[in-house]
Structure formats: C-alpha cells, structure tokens
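Budget justification aside, the reviewers requested a transparent look at the raw inputs and outputs of the sequence design task funded under Objective 1. We therefore reproduce one unedited record. The lines immediately below are the structure tokens for a 203-residue chain.
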C-alpha cells in the first residue's frame, strides 16, 4: 500500500490546520506524526483515513497497484479518542461483529484474540462496564488484529497503564510489521517506539 500527499492542506473555516504538505507513506513502514497540541496531528490522521477531504492539494491511496481513494475505509484500522464502540456488545460480540467487515489476521481466531486481549474474566461483560483503559485495548485489537493494510493510531497509549503500554508495544512488534502504521503522538519513546520516519507538523 502507498499513500501520497502533494501540496496538501486542510482548513476549518478560515483557519489552516496544516498546509503545503508533501509526504509519502508506503508499506511496510511505521511513521510518527509529531507536533504540539493543535498542530494538526489528529486532523492529518483523519485525512489519511479518508474521513476528511483535503481543502487543497491531492492525496492518493494505492493498494496492489489499484487506486482505492473511494474505499479507503475498507483498508484502515483506526484508534482514536473519538472512535465509539458499541457499548452493549461484549468483547467477543465486538470481535465477531468486526469480522463481518474484514478478516482476522492469518493464524488467529476470535478465541486467540480474546486471550491476547489480557482482559480475562471481563471478556464476557458489556463494554459499557469496561474502564477507559480496557476500551482502549479493544480499539487497539480491532486496528491491529485484523487485516488492515493501513493502521492509524491517534495517541494509542492514552488511558493505558504501564502493563498495558508494554502489551501495546508487543502487539505492534508481533502483528503490525507488514502494514503502513501512522502514529500521531509526541511520545517518541512509548507510542512511536517502532517508527523509523517522522513528520513534524510544528515546523
């Protein structure tokens, strides 16, 4: 997969969030998007996901030599503070529901993902009874443990304790190696630990 941005910008009303951005993301590769609060990290990730349309310039998505600009959502796994889960579902129901839209990684199953989750006895509780950190684990599982050529992580370690951060890092190392992964964060050591290239929106 490859994403190309050419002179790309995004504004809300008359305020430019970012502008004149040229960048390329290709698989396999892990990228960090850095910048101060309000610099446009989350906005850029939304543009990369196809949720937002650029205000100027161009962005193209290619997968297996085909343009997928109209169907990016079918290829992206997203972790974001604004992403909502179906709170009435249990973890197992959430995983099975998600499986209707994209396959689980080869060699894995609903059962193995539930074990990987580290949520133990809470696996069969409705998500509305999960803590914020537990819900963040669910979001990360949905992004990484399914066949998503594009993984977009907006501050993925928010609400995670130290053990859960180590869990996140092991998941990335083991399962996200073949994807484009873009992490929006200022934490290069923890959240962007696997990133080899960085884009700084504050410059």
């Amino acid at each position: 997969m490859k994403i190309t941005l050419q002179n790309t910008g995004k504004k809300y009303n008359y305020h430019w969030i970012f502008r004149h951005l040229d960048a390329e993301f290709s698989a396999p590769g892990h990228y960090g998007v850095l910048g101060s609060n309000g610099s446009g990290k989350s906005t850029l990730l939304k543009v990369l996901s196809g949720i937002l349309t650029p205000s100027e310039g161009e962005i193209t998505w290619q997968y297996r030599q085909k343009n997928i600009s109209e169907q990016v959502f079918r290829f992206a796994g997203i972790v974001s503070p604004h992403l909502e889960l179906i709170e009435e579902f249990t973890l197992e129901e959430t995983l099975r529901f998600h499986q209707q839209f994209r396959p689980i990684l080869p060699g894995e199953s609903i059962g193995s993902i539930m074990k990987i989750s580290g949520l133990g006895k809470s696996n069969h509780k409705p998500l509305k009874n999960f803590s914020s950190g537990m819900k963040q684990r669910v979001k990360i599982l949905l992004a990484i443990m399914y066949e998503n050529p594009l993984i977009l992580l907006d501050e993925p370690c928010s609400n995670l304790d130290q053990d859960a951060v180590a869990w996140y890092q092991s998941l990335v190392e083991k399962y996200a190696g073949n994807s484009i992964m873009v992490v929006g964060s200022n934490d290069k050591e923890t959240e962007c630990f696997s990133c080899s290239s960085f884009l700084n929106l504050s410059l």
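The chain has five helices and nine strands. Strands lie at 2-12, 15-26, 29-34, 56-63, 66-67, 76-79, 150-154, 180-184, 197-200. Computational costs for records of this kind are itemized in the attached budget.
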